[in-house]
Amino acid sequence: MENLQDIIASCLDNNHKNQKIFYERYFGYCLKIVFRYIYRYDRAIDIVNDGFVKVFRNFTRFHYENPENLERILLGWMRTIMVNTAIDALRKDSLLPEIGALDDNVWQQEDRSHGADQNLLYKELIQEVKKLPPSYRAVFNMYVIDGFTHQEIANKLGISVGASKSNLSKARALLQKKINDSSKQLDICNI
User: Fold this and answer.
1) How crowded is residue 75: how many other Cβ atoms within 10 Å of its Cβ?
2) pTM to 2 decimals?
3) Contact at 8 Å (CB) between 43 and 90?
4) At 67, which helix (H) or strand (E)?
């Protein structure tokens, strides 16, 4: 397989073969990001594809200095594009909850550097986050998982900073209650 620098350079030249290689290499990563916001599989696929169009259109804006950090920087840049694309879709749909499930084969495309236990915990966390009300879920994803500030969340979602903080607090409380309830059930099963 070609190295990432060459693939990116050829994507800048609209080389369809390498755009396909790039797309296939990072599709699973992008789908997991989008699926934290959009839970209908078919809708998430559409948003990922929209995100890739933005990636290819904006590759001229992607810059890095150290080739050793290229993939890490690229993944962060693409994550921002995918999150913004998903948020735009949610805003357009008035943050309506998405219903659906992600195919299990997507979870098999996990980052190989993490163990099976960590991948399972990630999947379980996402399943619990899915159950949060849409406004709590969006803020939780943006703040905890994607690292946005409350001001950035407020600007992107069109809410106040106070509402962002409140939604995050309520989301954490609901998730903590769910974790505590699950722990109690495990304790009962082990008796």
Assistant:
1) 15
2) 0.69
3) no
4) none
Tell me: the pLDDT tens digits for 148-184?
A: 999 999 988 888 999 999 999 999 999 888 877 766 6
Which CATH architecture fits 1-106?
Answer: Orthogonal Bundle (1.10)
How many Cα atoms occupy the beta-carbon half-sphere of 163 within 13 Å? 12
Three-class SS state of 1: coil
Domain ranges of the chain: 1-106, 131-191
Cα 136 from Cα 16, distance rounded (Å):
39
Tell me which range, 46-60, 78-92, 128-142, is most confidently predicted by mean pLDDT.
Answer: 46-60
How many other C-beta atoms are found inside a 10 Å radius of the C-beta of residue 132?
Answer: 21
Please state which architecture CATH assigns to domain 131-191. Answer: Orthogonal Bundle (1.10)
User: Is residue 153 within 8 Å of 135, Cβ to Cβ?
Assistant: no
Using DSSP, state whether 39 is helix, strand or coil. Answer: coil
Q: Give Cα separations from 86 to 1, 32, 49 (angstroms).
A: 30, 11, 11
Contact 55, 78 (CB under 8 A): yes
